[in-house]
Design brief:
The mean pLDDT is about 90. Helix content is about 85%, strand content about 0%. The chain is mainly α.
Length: about 130
Amino acid sequence: MAAHASVQARGVRARAQHRSTTSWALPLTLGVVLGWYATSIVRGGGVLTGGQLALGLISGAVLAVLCFGLGRVQKRLPVEQAAAAYGVLFGGSIGFLYSLSGKSVLAASVLGLLTGAAMLAASFYAFYTRRS
């Protein structure tokens, strides 16, 4: 009986360690990808300048911090609010990247709204089927 309890504790610890690594590695990766992509959009094949590099670093850092924070509080939020938060974060990121390409604010807003709504629906489905 005691051996079973110790094996179960190891499994819980291993899962907690995996979650802690994923909790910072995934936001960091998303931030790097968004920052790199934002820099490449603004650069347009030309020479990289300090302002373009700063835009990429700041936008990537902001996304990474927001993703990390949302990952920390998502379990405490109701399913609807967690799904809406992911939809807003995803739609805002896509709209921001699209606006960097020189398109109008209206076009970037519409694309951000559409992709955010799609992410809201997908994340609501994922959260609802896993939490029930």
